[in-house]
Specification:
Blueprint (H helix, E strand, L loop, with lengths): L2 E13 H15 L6 E7 L26 E2 L1 E2 L17 E2 L8 H5 L2 H10 L7 E12 L14 E2 L7 E8 L2 H10 L12 H15 L6 H11 L2 E8 L7 E6 L4 E6 L12 H5 L5 E6 L11 E4 L4 E6 L2 E8 L2 E6 L5 E2 L15 H7 L1 H9 L3 E2 L2 E2 L8 H5 L3 E6 L1 H18 L3 E5 H7 L7 E7 L5 H12 L3 E6 L5 H5 L2 E4 L12 H17 L7 H22 L2 H11 L4 E6 L4 H15 L2 E6 L16 E6 L5 H13 L3 E7 L3 H4 L5 E6 L7 H20 L17
Parallel strand pairs: 4-5, 20-21, 20-22, 22-23, 23-24, 25-26, 25-27, 27-28, 28-29
Antiparallel strand pairs: 1-6, 1-12, 2-3, 2-6, 7-8, 8-9, 9-10, 10-14, 11-12, 11-13, 13-17, 14-15, 15-16, 18-19
Length: 708
């Protein structure tokens, strides 16, 4: 969804060109989240002190501290005033008519700077201190257009600028109130109420001949807002300051000390660390991927925290509805275990291709340090294991690919633990307000840890008293912070919108969770030991199946002109059928459906003819003979069959030239979905490339779905 990035340099001279490049590159790192427009706000040249007007509520006027102004350029529209005494306060940004073309536009960086040059801005001017903000927007309120893009402004004069990720649920009420007080709205967004509300608070304080700090303004704004959000505020009234706050949406602070070893872990209180006056660079980002190339020292901002950067120092306040004066908070920095190479394509053409082929390594990382002495060690669950084992039931809750990963793991968890396991799509659980009890363990699965429906379901489960377990790939995410315990899948940064390596790592993590929960049962000891041995060898089996890349490309070429695809699976591989079909649907933009093979005769059989391609997953497990029967029935009706089977089983599933066969290595039944999904991931990738679509950023989709 929306992406936020901000950059502040302190006591180190940076040219405006460099500042722009840092902000633009931050947006480039966030574009995988999905977006349809983008924007940037930077400082303009300072006006002579004598020319600065006194504060007023009038149009285009700045406050008494307006020594810093925001430079402006809206593509196709300029809000710079012709009055030399009026600050030229607005913001610099670009809006695109087509989704997902920021990278192709920004690679022609000369075009960006030509536009800046046309605005008569000195790109070579250095700033000892400067604060810039940037944003990628995924439209929710209002179509993609210049007036709906962020930063959103408080009005003429741009006294307050805001970038926002999330949804303000009471914006209509706030908008009506502000209109009654004389404010005029230009956009269709929910965000615009925020900077206008900040201006209203600021003006009201000054009308009473009082003073108000930047943090006081923001805290009063937060007091009026309902919904989920991450916000960054910038104002000419408070030059060279930034304020960030969050509620239900991830926001990261990165700190880079420019003296000494910049990659050294700084496990210190962030306020004490930054109050030393030394040269430093500070970053805000929606995602760790955007700051890893700058620093590895970061802080995940928690809900209702207000982070204020002033004079190079970071102070953190804890907002509380019940207390007018917020408490000061001490927070220590964390060290990011990620390398810059993880966010680059390397020798691959696309991120999705890279991430498919990274799966042997990502699975190894997922299991590293967790398989010991024929057992599984999951430190994140250790303190709650007794409660989980005595649960009335375990509920898996997720959306999309994460839901499929949980579905693939359910049979094994039931087998080893003897606890009933139910599946819930997060949105459906919320719609039904399904029953969750204190004796339940609710397991929330989300790659990003920011999926809106999953987080709302988490709040619902917490309210009902269930033990909540989080499984996510994102350190510091909202899901990781709000659950009682959990497991990081450690799959590494995943840039492609269509999840690949995170899916297989989720299955492996949930298999290890089943092994850990069921480790107190002697009756399943032999089964557990065989699975642990299979886990150790799983990366090698994945390497084997990746060698079929060329074979899957040939299959994709034979399917390039088809309009639909069916995928049949059952047992452990019902989830594989759903996920394989979803991948084709997501990136190749081809209609595809994953179906439970046992339901074939209850409707889907009517679709079978010699033109419709049907993939049947028939690898060796307890459902193998049933899948053989399904293949025979489809063959009898002249179905266009593509059968995935275990190596050596081709004669058993397909006689003569009646169908096409994909042979894969055989592993333990509960791990087979990890192997079986990879050919389907490769098929979806090659179909997309051959059909000429964007692999990494499919139309209308976002990596992190932060709205309902």
């Amino acid at each position: 969804m929306c992406g936020i990035f901000a950059y502040l340099n302190y006591n180190v001279a940076r040219e405006r060109r460099y500042i722009l490049e840092v902000l633009l590159n931050g947006l480039r790192r966030l574009e995988y989240r999905g977006y349809d427009s983008s924007g940037i706000a930077i400082d303009s040249d300072l006006a002579p002190a004598a020319a600065m007007p006194e504060k007023g509520r009038g149009e285009g006027e700045a406050g008494p501290r307006g020594r810093s102004r925001s430079c402006s350029a809206r593509k196709g529209r300029s809000s710079r005033s012709s009055d030399p005494c009026t600050p030229k306060c607005s913001f610099l940004w670009w809006q695109f008519e087509e989704l997902n073309n920021l990278s192709s536009y920004l690679t022609k960086s000369s075009l960006v700077f030509v536009e800046v040059d046309e605005m008569d801005i000195n790109l070579e001017r250095p700033f000892l201190v400067h604060a810039g903000i940037a944003h990628t927007r995924w439209a929710t309120h209002g179509v993609p257009s210049p007036r709906n893009s962020h930063p959103q402004s408080s009005g003429a004069g741009d006294e307050f600028l805001v970038v926002h990720n999330g949804i303000i649920t009471n914006y209509e009420v706030l908008k009506e109130t502000l209109v009654r007080h004389g404010f005029t709205f230009e956009s269709e967004t929910d965000t615009e109420v925020i900077p206008k509300l900040a201006k209203f608070v600021f003006d009201r304080a000054h009308d009473g001949e009082g003073t108000v700090t930047f943090s006081q303004v923001v805290i009063e704004v937060m007091r009026q807002l309902e919904g989920a959000y991450a916000l960054i505020f910038k104002s000419p009234h408070y030059p060279n300051e930034l304020i960030a706050c969050t509620r239900g949406s991830t926001l990261i602070l990165g700190v880079k000390e420019l003296s000494g070893d910049t990659d050294k872990p700084l496990f210190h209180d962030v306020k004490a660390l930054t109050a030393n006056g030394k040269p430093k660079e500070l970053f805000f980002s929606s995602d760790l991927c955007a700051i890893v190339e700058h620093t590895k020292n970061y802080l995940a901002i928690e809900d209702n925290e207000v982070v204020h950067i002033k004079d190079g120092s970071v102070s953190i306040l804890k907002f509380d509805y019940h207390n007018e004066k917020p408490a000061s908070v001490q927070r220590a920095l964390s060290f990011l275990e990620m390398e810059v190479e993880q966010i680059k394509k390397g020798n691959y053409d696309h991120f999705m291709q890279k991430e498919i082929h990274e799966q042997p390594n990502s699975l190894t990382t997922t299991m590293r340090g967790r398989l010991k002495d024929n057992g599984v060690v999951l430190g994140g669950l250790k303190d709650h294991m007794k409660t989980i084992r005595h649960s009335r039931r375990i509920i898996f809750i997720g959306c999309g690919t994460s839901y499929h990963a949980a579905l693939a793991s359910r049979p094994f968890l039931e087998e080893l633990c003897g606890i009933p396991v139910t599946m819930e799509l997060a949105s459906d659980l919320l719609d039904r307000e399904g029953p969750i009890y204190r004796e339940d363990t609710a397991v929330f699965v989300s790659q990003s840890g920011e999926t809106a429906d999953t987080l709302l379901a988490l709040e619902y489960a917490l309210k009902n008293g269930a033990l909540c377990v989080g499984i996510t790939n994102t350190v510091g995410s909202t899901l990781a912070r709000k659950t009682h315990c959990g497991i990081h899948i450690n799959a590494g940064c995943e840039i492609g919108v269509a999840s690949t390596k995170a899916y297989t790592s989720q299955i492996v993590v949930m298999a290890m969770m089943a092994l850990a929960i069921g480790s107190d049962r002697l009756s399943t000891q032999a089964r557990r030991e065989s699975i642990i041995a299979g886990l150790s060898d799983l990366p090698n089996k994945v390497r084997e199946v990746l060698k079929r890349d060329g074979e899957m490309k040939d299959l994709a070429e034979s399917l390039i002109d088809t309009q639909s695809l069916l995928v049949f699976g059952r047992g452990y591989n019902y989830a594989t059928a759903l996920e394989g079909a979803l991948k084709v649907k997501e990136v190749a933009l081809m209609h595809s459906e994953g179906m439970l093979a046992g339901e074939m005769k209850h409707g889907p059989l009517a679709l079978v003819d010699e033109t419709l391609p049907i993939i049947v997953i028939a690898t060796r497990d307890t459902c193998f003979s049933k899948q053989q029967s399904v293949i025979q029935q489809l063959h009898a009706r002249k179905g266009r069959l593509i059968v995935m089977c275990s190596e050596g089983d081709a004669p058993s599933v397909c006689t003569g030239d009646s169908c096409r066969v994909i042979e894969v290595p055989q592993v333990a039944d509960c791990l087979q979905p990890v192997i079986n999904i990879i050919p389907l991931q490769l098929l979806a990738y090659h179909l997309t490339v051959l059909r000429g679509y964007d692999v990494d950023q499919p139309r209308n989709l976002a990596k992190s779905v932060t709205t309902q």
